[in-house]
Amino acid sequence: MPKESLCLKVPKKDGEKTLTLANQIGVNDKTLLIQREPQTNTLSIPLSRALTEEELNQMQAGVPELELISQTFAEKTRQEKTLPELLKGELPQDLLDKLPRALDVVGDIAIIEIPPELEPHKIIVGQAILKVHRNLRTVLAKVGAISGVFRLRSVEFLVGENRTTTLHKEYGCSYYVDVAKAYFSPRLSQEHWRVASLVQNGETVADLFAGVGPFAVPIAKSCKDAKIYAVDINPEAVEYLKKNIKLNKVENRVVPLVGDARKLVNEQLSGIADRVIMNLPETAYEFVDVACKTIKSTGGLIHFYGFVRMPDTIEAFQQRFTEAVEKTGRKVTTFERAKAVRETAPYELQVVLDAKIC
Which domain holds residue 199? Predict the structure, then answer.
């Protein structure tokens, strides 16, 4: 039955970017069919609720041609089964309650956490995930925590195609990734886009822990006159970064550098940046002095990521960062943002600080 709904009308070329952002915010109405209009080469994406002014401004910053209108949509006739529905009858209820509630999806690979109770049934769970998510080709299980200088996590192949390489797409950018050899978090996709949307043409940006390029590439694509120095200590990550720079056609704007950030800043990057990105939440405090040395003498902005574990607070997190900056002889003039990005574990948040430095 047709249904009237608020929607986002966008050029087809911006459809993937818009849909990803709508899903991140949680406003995409998945009970209605997206409407395609070949004559105008546009898509209309139905919304489950009205956008706040801040949400609308955020989306229009990334998709300037976006329109918010009301339109009639067809309802989806068949809802896909959920993982618990598919496995009902194969697993007892107490094990159904233990099924993974979230997947890390990188390209066509799902990475899941298998609790000890489900270990004997992990193949059945993996097969069910592929049935529920038809776009996926491989299911891997997490083995242990992210660790080491290269921020890697061991993974175990469960079902599907036995590989760890894939092509991941978000916000109009594409990335070659090997999830076993280079750090990559799809859960930061909105943050990659947010930071890119803040960078102005003509800026020089230093991404000190760049990985395969999820911050550097969208900045370069959206800012034709920006210069980005993308640093990572993991040679494998930098090799993928180089491929992604070429894949996204931003060779003239991104400079890939392999090595320790401290050494490279001392040798090449001292005082060059208007903006520094520090996505190394486990040990970022150890590099605050490096970031401050990278920022121009006239000042700039640092995007600083870290973990806050209860009963710690974001306010205390800000204070520690401020003190670390002051030890370098510089000063935080203001925090333009101090907010949780995502929950990483029970009672643990990943937090970002956008800090103006003078």
Answer: 185-357
